[in-house]
Amino acid sequence: MAILGNIIKGFIDVKESFSSGHNPVEEQQAVLKKLLTKAKDTAFGKHYDFESILESEEPANVFANKVPYFDYNKIQKEWWYRLQEGEENVTWPGHPQYFALSSGTTGNSSKRIPVTDDMIEAIKKTGIQQVFALSNFDFPGDFFEKEIMMLGSSTELKENNDHLEGEISGISASNIPFWFRSYYKPGEEISKIDDWDARVQRIAENAENWDIGALSGIPSWIELMLQKVISHHKLNNIHDIWPNLQVYTSGGVAFGPYEKSFNALMGHSITVIDTYLASEGFVAFQSRPETDAMKLVTDEGVYFEFVPFKPEYINDDGALITDAPSVTLKDVTLDQDYVLVMSTVSGAWRYEIGDTIAFTDVARAEIKITGRTKFFLNTVGSQLSVNKMDDAMKHLEAEFSTKIPEYTICAKRCEDGEFYHCWYIGTEDDLNEAAIAESLDNFLKEANKNYKVARSKALKGVKVKRIIPSIFYEWSGANKKKGGQVKMERVMNEDKFEEWEQFVTEQ
Question: What are the sequence ranges of the domains in the chain?
Fold first, then answer.
């Protein structure tokens, strides 16, 4: 009998019952005041006169009017470079011990995003909130005695002057609470291996020694790890070696495109729980099984604003225009994509994280990630978002009985001088490219009226090339690194796409 597991489960159930009754709007108002109060004596706080914002009757409105939007390039050029030179009290009190390296999906050079002690504490507290929310999923007591495989980037952080650098998953894993370490796999020694292939090989070699109950990580890299374990031990599926695996905590990207290929590695269905941990902070997590939407973390160190995602508010590089209107949590609506803007305990202010979200339940502050501002394809007026592209891949999977975990697209002017949407689709199956293109085109015409209009005007047609999925992962390895938080570009500009096509021909 799972005595310890039932004790833990009982504690979680009791704790969660006393944690109900949150008011997200009030929590956000309190978070903004805490952020402004703590940072008012920093160089940034003095420059934008946080003191007067706090004294105003409507701090949220005054804050939005006084402080401009910042993307990474803007805040790095104007403020964060001073941190990397060792200066203190720049955008947050003190000096950060860590910087999260993030090239994300759109560039080769790493961003260096400050991660303060306050942020690490906020991430820990949010992680505990997520654990307590497991009481809503009604897992058996013995689940809470199983080990958790967390597949992120290396926890071997690099020293750089007076701070340590690494991806946020590695920083978080290097700061896990002491009581959690006995549950955490692959363990500290293997997690420090920087080379992705070597780390996964060690995981495969040790897999039979672990009783894994949950997985956590970005879907594409989790899949590759599972495939390696299955291959190494000559298994039919992952449940042959980890029979008690019950939960997968996804994160970083939408799980939908990976669902079919992921499930093919399982012996039976498991519970998928979405999370949203970015380099800038812990944004949201799925707190109940009735929905796959995620609850915004409204009470732990992050203040959110939302800009309606409309073409007229977005520059060509994906950044917001200066006077794009924002709303706070109390004024958001359903059926509207928003650009997510964050202010945090790491000293990010009105920071454009680059993601777009939509609310599924306003009262609960529950959201879904709908795409990236830079992955909004509007070269010829098609206004095609990533969620529509993901839906199209699901349609193709169903129609052609295949699995398509990866894809990328470019609106490209071809030899005839006309614009085409050029798709590369990752699948192991030998499918007819012309048939895929026709089905894809017809689906998007039905799903997106702007796309349909574009197809009658400037967008001449659709071209599809089928390649094996591993080429996408090798591209990531060649351009950035394998594993960790690396995500494939869903949309490329013509210059990048030329590099991509050259890379594909060389494989």
Answer: 377-506
